[in-house]
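Hi support team,

I submitted a single chain yesterday and got back a structure, but I'm not sure I'm reading the token output correctly. Could someone confirm the output below corresponds to the sequence I sent? I've pasted both exactly as they appear in my results page.

Thanks,
R.
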Amino acid sequence: ELSNAQISFSSFAASARIRFWVASFMPSQVSRLIAVKVAAKPRRTRMLWVTQNLILAEAAKLENEIWAFESSLDQLGMDCNAQGPCDRGEPGGMVGIEPDAEDQALLARITAEVTVPRWAERCGAECAQEWNDTIGKVIGVEAPTSF
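Hi R., thanks for writing in. Yes, this is the structure output for that exact sequence:
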């Protein structure tokens, strides 16, 4: 019985990818992985931390499975849009190309100057700051936090 325990739940982000996946694809009741604070007996505290560690370990496995699945969908999409094979119908007949340095520079500029600022405005200042502290820091693209 945990009636004497004080438990608070908050979103857990082992990485920005897990937070994105959880927020986007999991029902809200399940999407709150645990960060637990307990004012109870040590045995109860240990049980909750063991549970939390189990959830974190399983979340890491789930993340790997999601990335593998996503990769397979990318390839399926490329195959179906190009020459095949495509198990979803006739291939589209498009020709795949690799973007050159100029294309990549244009994409980076559009991302930094258009896409991220528009997204940040929709998401809000707090959300944009979280981006800057996590993903933005990794990829070198800062979102504006005042609009």
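A quick pointer for reading it: The mean pLDDT is 75. Let us know if anything else looks off.

Best,
Support desk
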